Automatic annotation (TrEMBL):
InterPro entries: Atg22-like, ATG22/LtaA_families, MFS_dom, MFS_trans_sf
Organism field: Nocardioides astragali
Name this polypeptide is given: MFS transporter
UniProt topology in membrane: Multi-pass membrane protein
SUPFAM superfamilies: MFS general substrate transporter
4Fe-4S among keywords: no
Cellular location(s): Cell membrane
Membrane-spanning residues: 73-93, 105-124, 130-148, 169-189, 201-222, 261-283, 295-315, 327-346, 352-374, 395-412, 418-436
Domain Major facilitator superfamily (MFS) profile: from-to ranges: 259-453
Amino acid sequence: MSEIDGGIANLKPLAQAEEQKAWYWYDWANSAYTTTIGTVFFGPYFINLAENAVGGEEGRFELGPLSLPPDSLFFWLITVSTILSAVILPPLGAYADRVANKKRLLAMLAWTGSFFAALIFFATDDNWQLAAIGIVFGNLLFAAAGVVNDSILPLISDENERDRVSSRGWAFGYLGGGLLLVLNLVVFLGHDALALSEGLAARLCMLSAAAWWAGFTFIPFLRLKDHPPVDVEHVEGNALKRSFGQLAATLRDMRSYPMALTFLLAYLFFNDGIQTVIASATVFGSEELGHSQTILIATILMVQFVAFGGALVFGRLAGRWGAKRTILVGLGIWSTIVTIALFLPAGNVPLFLILGAAIGIVLGGTQALARSYFSLLIPRGKEAEYFSFYHAMDRGTSWFGTATFGIVLALTDSYRPAIFALIAFFVVGGLLLTRVDTERGIREAGNDVPAVI
């Protein structure tokens, strides 16, 4: 497209670039929740609360027919939040597609989610119930805001730049999450000098992530623009009835986009593996390998900054090989990682750091490219609806992954076979991904085919 068309300057690229910069800030904002709360602090802190409630790590929770150890309860909580997401996110996506002011909806969901995340600060002693409410609804609203945020990506970028924009957003997010983790590392490691107990320091770190998420969300809220809905199904009734009516129409119409459905099925598997590894990483490192909280935080911090570079590298590789091929390479690396974890010696810090670096390289890249690749396979005007199904299998992990991990852990009483069992998710996801005909899927969705696919 020429810079001047009919004597009038084409300002669309400049306007898109400005919106892209504003959009990156939401990845910066929400990454702190994933890193500080979801990955580093919440798991060990919640297990401590649960152990206090049942009189120690040998105690059991009797929940109906289930008899659960305290550490297993954590994974079942994550499973509950994801099942709720699967029910709530699709109608939310249908509603979001009918809204021009998506930035306001994004902000409202993010701010409500940060409120629930902040509740974890008040969970002390044996009050695991309040912490459970905070993480379940925090995860749910995190996923809900993610649906709206990802649906904005196709509105602010053309097909040829989708991988680059998505990868930069993920990279920016890892940089923001890493920066806050540096600050939290200073607070946690220096809690004695600050006259704080270890528990209070951990709670303050989690509170800071909630505040970070809420505060930086103001940037996209103020700087993104409204985008009027397009190709919306005409359905009578109030907003709720129209949303469910559009959802029903989309479900009927999904058969017209088999490649998008095949990718969703592939994503269901390989993303479950990725998210379960992320959710269990610190617990695996502390409970199975015996590493201190200091080592775990330092490793996650390293992963954040390696993932920053990894996301950018994967974005460039996608520009040469196409997103699908690059994702498949990433899944091969993930399979190698969980295999190495099966044999990783306890207490060996250098090998643990090397494994963490490998995770960092593929973590941001596979997730960023999955987002941009899927955006090419879905029809215009229904971005939020399709991303709602995408996110029902994302953030907080789908119940397949966490349930598998929890069952294997309960049966073997070891984290090693539990984490190795996740290789099945990467293998099955990769095989399904090979069945996606990228060019066909893009054309079926009515999108332009990028120069490299």
